[in-house]
C-alpha cells in the first residue's frame, strides 16, 4: 500500500472511510478494505497478547 493512502486513511474515521470507499475507484476501495482488515487484526492481536 502506498504511504499516501495510509496517511490519508489514518486521518479518517471508519465512518468517513466507508463513505469515501463507496465513491472511490474499485482498486482503491479494495486497498482501503485491506487496510481496515489489517488494522482490526492487529488490534485484536495486541488485545489478545498484551492485556
Can you walk through the features of this model?
- The protein has helices spanning 3-11, 14-23, 26-50.
- It has 51 residues and is mostly helical.
Summarize the structure.
It is built from three helices and no strands.
What labels would you give this structure?
about 50 residues, elongated, mainly alpha
Structural class: mainly alpha
Strand residue content: under 5%
Q: Largest beta sheet, briefly?
A: none
Helix residue percentage: over 70%
Give the number of domains.
1
Helix count?
3
Tell how many strands the DSSP assignment holds.
Answer: 0
Order of helices and strands: HHH
Task: Outline the low-pLDDT stretches.
Answer: none
Rounded Rg: 12 Å
Roughly what is the average pLDDT, rounded to an integer? 72
What is the distance, rounded to the nearest whole angstrom, between the alpha carbons of the first and last residues? Answer: 29 Å
> Which word captures the global form?
elongated
List the helices and strands and how they pair.
Layout: H1 3-11, H2 14-23, H3 26-50
Amino acid at each position: 500500500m502506498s504511504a499516501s493512502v495510509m496517511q490519508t486513511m489514518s486521518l479518517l474515521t471508519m465512518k468517513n472511510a466507508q463513505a469515501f470507499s463507496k465513491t472511490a475507484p474499485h482498486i482503491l476501495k479494495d486497498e482501503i478494505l485491506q487496510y481496515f482488515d489489517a488494522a482490526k487484526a492487529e488490534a485484536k492481536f495486541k488485545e489478545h497478547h498484551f492485556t
